[in-house]
Amino acid sequence: MNCIITGLGGRGQWWLSNLLNRKDVTLAAAVEPFQASADKAVARFGLDPKIIHPTLNDAISSTKADFVFDVTPPAVHHKIAYTAFAAGLHVIGEKPLSDDFGIAKQVADAGEKAGVKHMITQNYRFGPLPRTTRALLAKGLIGQPGQCDLRFYMNWADMPGTHYVTEPFMFITDMMVHHFDMLRYVLDTEPISVQAITWNHPWGWHAGDAAHAIVFAFPNGLMATHVSVGCAVGAMTTYNGDWRIEGPLGSVSWEKDKLWHTCLHRTEKRINEEVFPPAVPPSEQAMLDEFFAAIRENREPECSARDNLNSLRMVFGAIQSAKEGRKVMLSEVV
Question: Looking at the predicted structure, is the pLDDT value of residue 268 above 80?
């Protein structure tokens, strides 16, 4: 598969290293308008400077490609997507799909109309914990889940001057979209409503709120809570966060990325044992494998743009709830 990668900043170079390590990917061209970033990529990876272009149109016209890997800022994703779609190229892109829900819907529609595959890199759901937990819940290990509680404490985006710390609600938009997407995946259901309270701590470094308490309501009475501090300087969770999913037959929990199955009620057999998930490919490999398989098999990929709208709806619904101080039905987010 011949690839054009757009964006050679820090995240772009991380993805570029993964692409170059694959035998089924050839780097056809790269797009980077900032010379300093282009120079760093040339020095680090030994790229031919001639394959680096200032715009995606230039890159497309100069080479033959099969797909575009978009590692540009969220506000630019739709421009990259439209240009790629017009050239008949598949797209795999960094989350979030867009920083505007209306635009995200338009992009998902445009990709389907163009007949190409469009996948978003929601890499957290490809890890061993969500993969294994979803399977355990589907088997009925703890019965019908009734409550899911997440706790996330991290010194998130401790990078002065970047858009992560200067723009509003970036903690929810950029980081929580991972957790919200995992909620949908692990619980295998879609939320109905959201209620959120957000705030900042006086020692924090974010301009936008970087702490919150959020409640999602799902069908069948299932409730999920998400409590986070993005400017934590004390004990921290992992990036997956600590989870507890409660059902009538016990609980499944993630504690520092260890998976536990517990049932300690006096009328039941006492269980408190660690579950060891089977090995899975690294998430970046798994996502590219899925993307290429979807192209070969002419099907919608997991984490397609269409599916990802449901995760984004949770993001924008939480932000709307925080701004308006009320419960928001997710059907309102259109």
Answer: no
Residue bearing tokens 């120079």: 39
Q: Cβ(141)–Cβ(249) under 8 Å? A: yes
Q: Which helix (H) or strand (E) is 258 found in, with range?
A: strand 258-263
Q: What are phi and psi of 40, to 5 degrees?
A: -65, -40
- Give the pLDDT band of residue 159 (cuts 50, 70, 90): confident
- The residues pairing with 149 across neighbouring beta strands, listed in sequence order, are 225, 244
Question: What DSSP assignment string belongs to 50-105?
Answer: GGEESSHHHHHHHS--SEEEE-S-GGGHHHHHHHHHHTT-EEEEPSPS-SSHHHHH
Rounded to 5 degrees, what angle do the CA atoms 182, 305, 164 make? 65
- Beta strands (DSSP E) in the chain are 2-6, 26-31, 52-53, 67-70, 90-93, 118-120, 147-153, 193-199, 211-217, 223-229, 242-247, 250-255, 258-263, 271-275, 328-329
Pairing of the two strands 223-229 and 147-153: parallel
Residue type, 22: R
Total residues belonging to the chain: 334
Reference 12, options 32, 36, 35, 26; nearest CA is 32
pLDDT exceeds 80 at position 194: yes
- Which residue type occupies 63? T
Tokens of 138: 């589907």
Helix (H, G, I), strand (E, B) or coil at 225: strand
Percent of the chain, pLDDT > 70? 100
Residue 204 has pLDDT above 80, yes or no: yes
Structural domains of the chain in order of their starting residue, each with its CATH number: 2-116 (3.40.50.720), 124-280+313-332 (3.30.360.10)
Buried b (16+ CB within 10 A) or exposed e, 212-223: bebbbbbeeebe
The answer to whether the bond into 301 is cis (omega within 30° of 0) is no
d(CA 104, CA 289): 24
pLDDT tens string 20-42: 999 999 999 999 999 999 999 99
Provide the token pair at 250.
């016990």
